[in-house]
Amino acid sequence: MYSMKSLIFSIRRALLGWYRKTKRDLPWRKTKDPYAVWLSEIMLQQTRVETVIPYYEQFIKQFPSIESLAKAHEDRILKLWEGLGYYSRALNLQKTARIVAQERNGEFPRSVDELQLLPGIGRYTAGAIASIAFGIRAPVLDGNVKRILTRLFAVEGRIDLRETENRLWHQAEELVPAKSPGDFNQGLMELGARICLPKNPNCEECPIAFWCEARKLGIPNHFPVRTPKKAIPHYEVVAAAIHKNGRYLLGKRPPGGLLGGLWEFPGGKVESGETHQEALRREIREELGIEIEVGDPVSSVDHGYSHYTVTLHLYRCTHTAGVPQTLYHSTLRWVWKKQFSRYSFPAANLKFFDLL
Q: Among 34, 89, 140, 340, which residue's beta carbon has the most beta carbons within 10 A?
């Protein structure tokens, strides 16, 4: 029978040994620079490693230091982020870069508590930066780690409840060693990404399977336990490709909200009882203060966000009356199609370019 101290020691040793032998060769693992570690952790939030790699490499190439990122134009940052999603992460990157560069002489804070004071850095990201970049004994708890811990200790509590999350943070804190905490935390992340998968985990290859209660019970797929999800709402959205003398009218979304700072074809949701054409004329009056003639549809695309899905319909439109005003957008601009590549757009808008 293992004591808790012996159990923890065995898990640490097994996981660290496995990680050091089998870890993936990822670009952000080649350095302990807190700037690079922080950038990778922000990009990896809710995003697959394979997707992040080219974005990370391009970002580091364009902004090799936190000072260069602090001085960059917002549009340039958003353009490099285009397609990565959750654009508030990109805006928070620059806010943090400016704080660190201008108020801290380019030095990141080393403690978890201080790191969490920076925009876009929560408890998990702070623990990852502190442990990986500075070697500080700090736990991490993301979706992968939650799954591992609920299986390892057969935690029946629903992971979306505060009580269960607090328990898992406590377990993560007990497990992380004082020596090589960064390697241990990355080992947990690696294990969740490659072995302890959401469905049908590869227990035969798991370095800590011997101590896993879910494996002993034969029910690894039972964990983690979640509250059943509610149905995700779906919206019909219309947008106007308003053209005039060969150029299209683009609007820059206001900062702070969903997709803040990105450029788009103006439009909005179709209300109950409206046709697409009625909705588009109403939205353009509300957003731009002008009148349009709605022409032929360009195409439609389905797109998913974190809490809802949309079907976006783009229509060719002609400006017939009024002067465009920034009633909703922070900036309006008439743009040639060949210039679209200079602007950062939401992913759903990108799908229309070749069809215009």
A: 140
List, in order, residues 6 or more apart from 317 with CB less than 8 Å away: 240, 241, 242, 243, 280, 284, 292, 293, 294, 295
Report how far residue 317's alpha carbon sits from residue 291's, in angstroms, rounded to the nearest whole number: 10
Between the CA atoms of 29, 32, 33 and 39, what dihedral angle is there, to the nearest 10 degrees?
A: 40
Q: What is the pLDDT of residues 282-297, one digit of tens each?
A: 999 999 999 999 999 9
Q: Would you name the residues annotated as active-site residues?
A: 41
**Rounded CA separation 338/221 (Å):** 50
Contacts (Cβ under 8 Å, ≥6 apart) of 146: 159, 165, 168, 224
Instruction: Give the predicted TM-score (pTM) of the model.
Output: 0.88
39: nearest Cα among 92, 82, 110: 92
Closest Cα partner for 176 from 214, 118, 227, 128? Answer: 128
The rounded distance, in Å, linking the Cα atoms of 3 and 211 is 12
What the block records as the tokens of 81 is 């982020």
120 CA to centre of own chain? 11
Alpha carbons 154 and 224: distance in angstroms, whole number: 9
